[in-house]
Amino acid sequence: MTPKQKRSEIKRILSLLEDDNRRVFKLMYSHEDLDKDINSVVDSMPAKQLTCALSQCENSYHSIFQILKG
Fold this sequence. Notes:
single chain, mainly alpha, 4 helices, globular
């Protein structure tokens, strides 16, 4: 997966998550500007952080899905 694809997938998953999840994401990846738009946060992330961020987003999404499913 290219960095561009990873960014797109992170944005897609973040759009499905709740505000609290996006706030935590901003705390982790844009702690100096918590008012920054979430898509801008993803766009400005260094490529080396994308794999980890994508994994974290997927885990958050799957956790919420399991709660809703149960």
